């Protein structure tokens, strides 16, 4: 028969084995929960990445639209500058002809001088008036 020491040691070995088994099971569950949290976080990050890529695409489209509008306005502005230069030159030529007519005939011609401010309307001395604008004016 087994001695009392042997029974006690086999009983404590069983307790140690039971604690070891419970600890291993607890560690497995903890590792499983940790893997699940990591997987969930990865899925959240992938979703956020997709959302940010979509937003980035929309921003790229808006930028391209603004650039197209800028180029159109820049071209129109260049045309207007050329027209201004041409009209200014024509006006100077007509004024020169008028002065020649007056000098040649001696008949005064009453032509009012055109103010420089009319040739440069952005410099007109007029009160600044607010421009009513809404947020949908500049839709892209």
Shape: rod-shaped
Distance between the termini: 94 Å
Task: State the helix count.
Answer: 2
Q: What is the averaged pLDDT score? A: 82
Number of strands: 0
- Helix percent band: over 70%
- Poorly predicted segments: none
Structural class: mainly alpha
What multimeric state do the chains show?
single chain
Which percent band covers the strand fraction? Answer: under 5%
Q: H/E series, N to C?
A: HH
Radius of gyration: 44 Å
Query: Describe the biggest sheet?
Result: none
Task: Describe the 3D structure.
By secondary structure, the protein is an all-alpha fold. Helix content is 76%, strand content 0%. It has helices spanning 4-105, 116-119. The chain is rod-shaped, with a radius of gyration of 44 Å. The model has no long low-confidence stretch (mean pLDDT 82).
In short:
The protein is mostly helical and 140 residues long.
Considering the chains and any ligands shown, give keywords for the structure.
140 residues, mainly alpha
Per-chain topology:
Elements: H1 4-105, H2 116-119
């Amino acid at each position: 028969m087994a001695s009392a020491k042997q029974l006690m040691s086999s009983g404590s070995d069983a307790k140690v084995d039971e604690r070891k088994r419970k600890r291993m099971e607890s560690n497995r569950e903890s590792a499983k929960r940790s893997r699940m949290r990591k997987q969930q976080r990865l899925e959240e990050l992938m979703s956020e990445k997709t959302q940010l890529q979509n937003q980035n695409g929309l921003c790229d489209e808006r930028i391209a639209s603004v650039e197209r509008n800028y180029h159109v306005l820049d071209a129109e502005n260049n045309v207007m500058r050329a027209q201004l230069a041409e009209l200014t030159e024509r006006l100077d030529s007509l004024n020169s002809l008028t002065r020649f007519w007056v000098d040649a005939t001696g008949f005064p011609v009453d032509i009012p001088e055109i103010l420089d401010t009319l040739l440069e309307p952005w410099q007109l001395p007029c009160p600044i008036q607010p421009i009513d604008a809404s947020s949908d004016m500049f839709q892209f």
